[in-house]
C-alpha cells in the first residue's frame, strides 16, 4: 500500500540521488571552467550554484514538515537528510573555494623529502651522496662577523708547540680554575704557542658541553692575547659538532679541533660531509687517531677538504710515512705522537707537535722543536714519554702533575691513578732529567693510594 511515509522515503532517495549527480556534474564543469574562463565570471557562477544548493536544502526541510511524526518513518527520513546535508555542505564549500591553492608554507623543498622505494626509476643504479642537500652554514644563526678574536688560518698553521692542556679538579669534581690558570700561565712562560682546551688530555670526554664551552671562554678571556686557544669541539654527531663549534667561536676561540666520527663510524663520503659542515665556521685542525676512533682518516679524505680556506692542517698519529705524504703536498701537519715528534719535525717537515709531555716540561719540548735537530735531548725525554703512555692518556699526566704538586690528586672516573710502582718510577725519572725542567716549585713526591680522590658524580 502506498502511504505518505513511503512517498517521503522515495522522495528522499530521489533527492539524494539527484543531489549527488548534480553536484558531481557541477564539480566537473567547475574544474573545466576554472581553467578557461575569467576568474570573475567563474566566481559569479559559483555563487549562483551555491544559491541553488541552499534553495534545495530549504525544500528538503519543507518535506520534513509534511511527513509527520511516525517514529520509523522519522528515523529513515533523518538518516537520508543527514546524508543529504553532508553532501550539500561539502559541495558548497568546494564550489566556493574552487580556486584554492596550497599555502606556501606547505611547499617543502624536495631535498627534505625521503625517496620512496616505489619512486626509484632504476633500482640497480649506484647511489651517490646528495651533495645538493648538504647546506653547511646557511642554517646557522651565527655569522662570521659576529665572532670575536677572528684569527687567520695562516696564524694557526705557524704554531709549532701546542699543548693539550690538562683540566684540574676540586674535591667535588668541579673545575679548579685557579690551578688551571697556573698551568696555562706556565705554558706561556716557557714558550708554548697554543693550547688545546677540552681535548683527550683535558678530559673533554668527561665534560658537559656547558662546561666545555665555559672553559674555552675562560681561557680566551684570561689568556687569549698571549696564546692561541684551540677548542676541541669535535663529536661523532655532526649536529653536536656544528653546535659546539658555533658556540666555541662565539666565545672567542681561535681555532677548532675536529675528530672523525668514532664508535658509530661512517663512510669516507660521510667523513667528508661531516668535516664540510664545520669548516665554514673558522680555522680548523683535523685530528686522526685511529687507536681511539677505530677508523683511520685516509689521505684522500684530507685532500678532499684541503682546498677550504679554513683548513689549517691535521694532527696525525699514524706515523712518519703519513706525515711525509702530507708535507710533500703542502699540507700542514702536527705530530700527534710525542715520541716521534722530533723526527717528524726535522726529517719529515712537520710543523710541530700537539703534545701531552709539554704539560710537564714545556721548556724542553720547546727546545726540541726550535733549535734544530737534537737527538740527545730527544733520547733524554723518551723515558718520560714512554712512562706517560704506559696506560691510556690522560692517566699518566694526571698522576705526574699531582706528584709534582701543581694540581690536587683528584680524578674524575673512570680514570684512576697509576699504581704505586709507577709513581715511584716517575720520581726517579724527574730526578734524572732534573726537577728544574718540570713545572711547579714543590718537590716531587710519591703519593700514596689514600692521597687520591676519585669522583664518580660531579
Automatic annotation (TrEMBL):
The family database entries (CDD domains) matched by this protein are listed as: DHDPS (cd00950)
Keyword Nucleotide-binding appears in the UniProt entry: no
Pfam families of this UniProt entry?
Answer: DHDPS
Keyword DNA-binding attached: no
Function text: Catalyzes the condensation of (S)-aspartate-beta-semialdehyde [(S)-ASA] and pyruvate to 4-hydroxy-tetrahydrodipicolinate (HTPA).
| Family according to the record | Belongs to the DapA family.
Q: What is the name attached to this protein's record?
A: 4-hydroxy-tetrahydrodipicolinate synthase
Task: Please report the organism this UniProt entry assigns to the protein.
Answer: Tanacetum coccineum
Amino acid at each position: 500500500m502506498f502511504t505518505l511515509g513511503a512517498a517521503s522515503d522515495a522522495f528522499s532517495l530521489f533527492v539524494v540521488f539527484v543531489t549527488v549527480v548534480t553536484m558531481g556534474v557541477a564539480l566537473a564543469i567547475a574544474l573545466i571552467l576554472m581553467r578557461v574562463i575569467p576568474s570573475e565570471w567563474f566566481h559569479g557562477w559559483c555563487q549562483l550554484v551555491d544559491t541553488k544548493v541552499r534553495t534545495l536544502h530549504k525544500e528538503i526541510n519543507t518535506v520534513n514538515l509534511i511527513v509527520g511524526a511516525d517514529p520509523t518513518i522519522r528515523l529513515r527520513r533523518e538518516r537520508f537528510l543527514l546524508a543529504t546535508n553532508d553532501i550539500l555542505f561539502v559541495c558548497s564549500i568546494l564550489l566556493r573555494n574552487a580556486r584554492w591553492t596550497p599555502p606556501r608554507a606547505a611547499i617543502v623543498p624536495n631535498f627534505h623529502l625521503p625517496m620512496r622505494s616505489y619512486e626509484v626509476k632504476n633500482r640497480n643504479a649506484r647511489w651517490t651522496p646528495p651533495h645538493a642537500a648538504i647546506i653547511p652554514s646557511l642554517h646557522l644563526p651565527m655569522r662570521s662577523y659576529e665572532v670575536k678574536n677572528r684569527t687567520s688560518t695562516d696564524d694557526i698553521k705557524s704554531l709549532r708547540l701546542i699543548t693539550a692542556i690538562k683540566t684540574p679538579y676540586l674535591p667535588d669534581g668541579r673545575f679548579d680554575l685557579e690551578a688551571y690558570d697556573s698551568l696555562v700561565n706556565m705554558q706561556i712562560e716557557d714558550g708554548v704557542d697554543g693550547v688545546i682546551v677540552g681535548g683527550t688530555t683535558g678530559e673533554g670526554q668527561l665534560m658537559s658541553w656547558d662546561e666545555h664551552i665555559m672553559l674555552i671562554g675562560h681561557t680566551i678571556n684570561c689568556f687569549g692575547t698571549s696564546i692561541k686557544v684551540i677548542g676541541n669541539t669535535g663529536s661523532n654527531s655532526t649536529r653536536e659538532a656544528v653546535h659546539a663549534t658555533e658556540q666555541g667561536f662565539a666565545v672567542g676561540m681561535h681555532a677548532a679541533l675536529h675528530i672523525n666520527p668514532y664508535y658509530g663510524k661512517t663512510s669516507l663520503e660521510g667523513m667528508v660531509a661531516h668535516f664540510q659542515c664545520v669548516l665554514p665556521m673558522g680555522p680548523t685542525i683535523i685530528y686522526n687517531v685511529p687507536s681511539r676512533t677505530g677508523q683511520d682518516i685516509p689521505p684522500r679524505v684530507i685532500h678532499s677538504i684541503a682546498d677550504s680556506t679554513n683548513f689549517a692542517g691535521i694532527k696525525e698519529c699514524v706515523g712518519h710515512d703519513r706525515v711525509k705524504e702530507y708535507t710533500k703536498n703542502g699540507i700542514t701537519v702536527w705530530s700527534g705522537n710525542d715520541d716521534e715528534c722530533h723526527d717528524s719535525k726535522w726529517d719529515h717537515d712537520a710543523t710541530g707537535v700537539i703534545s701531552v709531555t709539554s704539560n710537564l716540561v714545556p721548556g724542553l719540548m720547546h727546545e726540541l722543536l726550535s733549535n734544530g735537530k737534537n737527538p740527545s735531548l730527544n733520547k733524554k725525554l723518551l723515558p718520560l714519554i714512554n712512562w706517560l703512555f704506559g696506560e691510556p692518556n690522560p692517566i699518566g699526566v694526571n698522576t705526574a702533575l699531582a706528584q709534582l704538586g701543581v694540581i690536587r690528586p683528584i680524578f674524575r672516573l673512570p680514570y684512576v691513578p697509576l699504581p704505586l710502582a709507577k709513581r715511584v718510577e716517575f720520581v726517579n725519572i724527574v730526578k734524572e732529567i732534573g726537577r728544574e725542567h718540570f713545572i711547579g716549585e714543590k718537590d716531587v713526591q710519591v703519593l700514596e693510594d689514600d692521597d687520591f680522590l676519585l669522583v664518580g658524580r660531579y
